[in-house]
Backbone:
């Protein structure tokens, strides 16, 4: 049986296109989270700026996150535009950075700037975590295809407007009900691009039974923590 997995969802404040400043904020969140895995919102490293340049794994600006992960033994799942270009997730640990995922179901004008990815899983201490970005979570086929890869949890980074604060919780409960897995969703907090002047925050973690275990506030810099158990 796998050991329990400590996980956090973080919603750091974000400066548009400022990877250097945002990487420092991510590093602070990693240290504050005190968790084995920390999940960040969609495009958290640049803001939801569809013209943002891809962030490559060897980008020196990511060094503060790598250092924070090395200090804490954390795997950070960071939202960013990645090579492809895709709306992606960078997996950051104390050894470096790799592209772990690209958003499968692009929304609206995203398709002008990005290409879709494929379902993917990261493995941490024997736990298999399916990855998702925003609209992916609203497409039941995405969770089904990801679950078919064999998962214990489903983790996502999202951006929702403030009046959509219940959207990611409804989707999380559905994924838990359909597939019997833990769900963790990191939701953007504070203003960002794409018309999202006000975002929802309220990142959360749900048990495999669909129970809300932990939830952040609507404000930037919030963190929610829980422990996945079987």
Residues:
């Amino acid at each position: 049986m796998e050991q329990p997995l400590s996980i956090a969802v973080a919603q750091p404040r974000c400066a548009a296109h400022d990877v250097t400043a945002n990487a420092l904020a991510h590093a602070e969140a990693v240290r504050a989270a005190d968790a084995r895995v920390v999940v960040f919102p969609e495009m958290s490293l640049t803001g939801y700026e569809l013209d943002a340049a891809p962030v490559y794994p060897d980008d020196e600006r990511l060094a503060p996150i790598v250092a924070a992960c090395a200090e804490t033994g954390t795997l950070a799942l960071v939202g960013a535009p990645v090579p492809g270009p895709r709306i992606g997730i960078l997996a950051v640990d104390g050894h470096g950075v790799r592209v772990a995922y690209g958003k499968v179901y692009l929304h609206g004008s995203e398709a002008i700037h990005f290409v879709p990815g494929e379902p993917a899983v990261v493995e941490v201490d024997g736990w298999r975590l399916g990855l998702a970005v925003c609209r992916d979570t609203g497409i039941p086929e995405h969770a089904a295809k990801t679950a078919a890869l064999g998962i214990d949890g489903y983790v996502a980074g999202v951006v929702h407007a403030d009046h959509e604060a219940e959207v990611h919780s409804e989707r999380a409960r559905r994924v838990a009900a359909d597939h019997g897995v833990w769900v963790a969703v990191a939701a953007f907090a504070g203003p960002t691009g794409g018309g999202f002047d006000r975002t929802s925050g309220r990142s959360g973690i749900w048990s495999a039974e669909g129970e809300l275990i932990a939830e952040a506030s609507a404000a930037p810099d919030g963190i929610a923590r829980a422990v996945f158990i079987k």
Summary: The chain has a mean pLDDT of 96. Residues 7 and 37 are 5 Å apart (CA to CA). Residues 19-33 form the longest helix (15 residues).
